[in-house]
Design a protein that fits this description.
There is one protein chain. By secondary structure, the chain is mostly helical. About 80% of the residues lie in helices and about 0% in strands. The longest helix is centred in the last third of the chain and has 18 residues. The relative contact order is 0.10.
Length: about 110
């Protein structure tokens, strides 16, 4: 097995971002990987970096909002989902907008 094959997905993404820090897809992937691993602090850091650099990255808002909701950061989740709905509308992505509206409505009912 080669050295590269032994690296975790997270390590590969972190290394890639070292040389391509503005790559939105890699930043999103790293945020998702951190969330999957239960490293909420790193996931939050990467979602925030993603959305600061790429405010039109619609999927980032939805996944970040979901993470914040799971962490019981309801106000932050509402704010993130609301921003995502606006980004989705600007992008003409009705499906993403609808998904985030449903997630926001569910947060509001809890």
């Amino acid at each position: 097995m080669t050295q590269a094959a032994k690296k975790s997905r997270r390590t590969v993404l972190e290394e890639f971002l070292t040389t391509h820090p503005k790559d939105a897809f890699a930043r999103y992937g790293l945020a998702m990987e951190c969330a999957t691993q239960g490293d909420s602090a790193a996931a939050i850091e990467n979602f925030e970096a993603l959305l600061a650099e790429n405010p039109s990255y619609v999927a980032g808002y939805f996944q970040y909002g979901q993470l914040l909701a799971r962490l019981s950061r309801t106000d932050d989740a509402r704010r993130t989902l609301s921003q995502g709905i606006e980004a989705a509308r600007r992008a003409g992505d009705q499906h993403a907008s609808s998904e985030m509206e449903a997630a926001l409505a569910q947060l509001s009912s809890t």
